[in-house]
Amino acid sequence: MPDTIADAAILLPGEIAAAVSDAESAIANLNRAAGPELLPLARLLLRTESIASSKVEGMQVDARSLARAEANQETGRRVSSSAAEILANIDAMQLAIERAADLEAVQVTDFQDIHRVLMERAENARIAGRIRTTQNWIGGNDYNPCGAAFVPPPPDDVERLLDDLCAFINDDRLSPLVQAAIAHAQFETIHPFADGNGRTGRALVQVVFRRRGLAPSFVPPISVVLARDRRRYINGLTMFREDRVAEWVEMFAAAAAEAAWLASSYAGRVAELQERWRERVRLHANPRADAAVWEVIRVLPASPVITVPVAVAATRRSRSSVQSAIGLMEGAGILARLSERPRNQAWEAEGLLDLIVGLEAGEAA
Description:
Layout: H1 14-32, H2 39-56, H3 63-74, H4 81-100, H5 108-119, E1 138-139, E2 148-150, H6 155-169, H7 176-190, H8 197-211, H9 222-228, H10 230-241, H11 245-284, H12 292-299, E3 305-307, H13 308-315, H14 319-331, E4 335-337, E5 346-349, H15 352-360
Antiparallel strand pairs: 1-2, 3-5, 4-5
């Protein structure tokens, strides 16, 4: 049974407070570089965070397959249940972050809305958005909590604890990173849903960052770092539950700082790749300065596998000009057609998915 946290006094040793400050500076620096021209990179980072959050839960679909599934879903084709659930996590993360800045106060219904989007395409979609009314647990067997690794509070206490968590999130006495670390660990401890708690709780981290103004544009993909060493992450949550809050905050701050550094390094690599694409276009056809192809190149990081309708929506250019731009980029070797079917065609961006695979794995660029 976790203690309430809305009025808790959180004291951190000086060296951990310094680590928090360093991590917040890294996230702020990542966002300081975010101009309008880099907004497609923001979606790439959000997409990466969402996929890594699913990976923490053991849901694995490789980056190339998932990008193709995303294009298939956009054109109305069927996708696998595992891909659909991971894509729903991207939608849930997007919903959470977009709404965060406009919320006057976080309420329990906001957790439910995120969870509903997350789970509505899952096999157990019936639980989407529903606070649990039965006891759940992690580990052991499916029939009773004997031998479980963790047993969260009884269902009768969940509503009270969630109200307290909302009060904590709506207070700004603590630094944004400390608040996000504690809010996430408390949410995971309450475990208010029958399934999908981890992914919802990691979306909550980004909600706090956005609400507090720490990450107004670029999300640091913390789940990339957490997924790389899942055992350490679980141990960190256990530290929190054992009242070793400072140790958990220190671990969380280190993960956040590394995530911000990874995001910055990959943003630079993607920008370099886009410049190479522009040079190829100039050598291939040298189109006018206002040609649609330059806009397609700008938005491409947000959709590593792109379709004409997605490109039209992203660039706000006519269908015919987008089709011409894609044809030009295909001729220049920037886009590779994935199928020869005349309808619902999709193209993969050269080199981009290789970078995304590295980022999702938490590897240095």
